[in-house]
Fold this sequence. Notes:
The chain is an alpha/beta fold. It contains 5 helices and 9 strands. The longest helix is centred in the N-terminal third of the chain and has 13 residues, at 43-55. The protein is globular, with a radius of gyration of 15 Å.
Amino acid sequence: xxxxxxKNPTTKDDIYKFKWNALGEEFIFNTxxxxxxxxxxxxxxxxxxxxxxxxxxxxxxxILDLGCGYGPVGVILAKAMSNVKxxxxxxxxxxxxxxxxxxxxxxVAEKINVLQSNILENTGERFDRILTNPPIRAGKETxxxxxxxxxEHLNEGGKLYIVIQKKQGxxxxxxxxxxxxxxxxxxxxxxxxFILLCVK
Length: 200
């Protein structure tokens, strides 16, 4: 099976739609069989979104949704938070198109910039906050590249939020992040999912 961390997917491009409630708002998401979690916002991503919102009351600034898929993180935060500018980035060209569709569908396109890029190759921009649900199936080397590039593209004092399952290597990821950032806090744990926070 072709995995979603792919620049040009070759699987049949069937478009799906579903409604979703999050952070007190209703959303409509367009998805396809070429992206992760096509029929609902997955538990890990939703947990990260909720943890971020609870931890960042009053935040204003720039947010990067790294490996955005069809865009639930960026779209939900754009609607739920006032003074934010969000960049959504993915290697998968179909994910990028879906993210653009979903920003328009949910009337937050003016707050969102969507880029196709292999991790952060196509942008020199720096951000105040980065959130990622890394593509575990792409392998540890790719996941750790997400961490390295996120560190490089954070402003000083910026924060990286990550969701990862214990069974998918949370403990070794924490070791890697501690060596990179000099800190890594587990701010929430539920059902085997860890929400990690690192500060640059």
